[in-house]
Fold:
Amino acid sequence: MKIITLTTILLFGSLALVSKERSGEQDRVNNQKPENNMNTLNKFEFPQLPYSYDALEPFIDKLTMEIHYSRHHKAYFDNFVSAIKGTEMESMKIEEIFANMSKYPAAVRNNGGGFYNHVIYWENMKVNGGAPSSKLQSAIIKSFGSMEEFKKLFSDAGKTRFGSGWAWLSVDDKGELFVSSTPNQDNPLMDVAEKRGTPILGMDVWEHAYYLKYQNKRPDYIDAFWSVINWDVVSKRYESLVK
Ligand code: MN
Structure:
């Protein structure tokens, strides 16, 4: 009888511990500040997803998020770390590596881009993500004419990118906004980019970002993307670059 009781206590005790750990993990995910993740970039650490896998439902489904983050993003990260191992790049900032991208192997370009771009992307998404700050909104109107025209330009950049790649809203070295798209895992920080600047909003248009829910209908995913932009994060990025 004593043995049974002890076993019962141990069993329930460990179940309670497991569920406590799980809820702790969830709290950590929910409370993560977006700014914290940007720090992981230069420490070359794999960042936490800033929300749960189902946080962007119904626009981006849970399974897509899980596979995208835990497999695709993780693989870019792992391959990036092994590509820079034992090289001068280990002690460089990621922006510095990108600024000299043409000097380094394709494995660094593809996987370093994949590591960085997804951190930007996860953080600039949120359901009910508000609106651009008045400062960012004025800059958008000044550069593109109106929010609607900006929306069309950015959507078209994603829709017309042949094959895999990204659409970006970035700030150039004069503090001006521009929209561009890059192939594969390139980004506007790279010296190989057609137009260079610092991205403040990124949209992944690789099939792996939408295929499970939207199949081949990339334009439907792009339309849905407008419902999950975290304008607070995008506005803060903008304001940190132009002040
Ligand atoms: Mn991706």
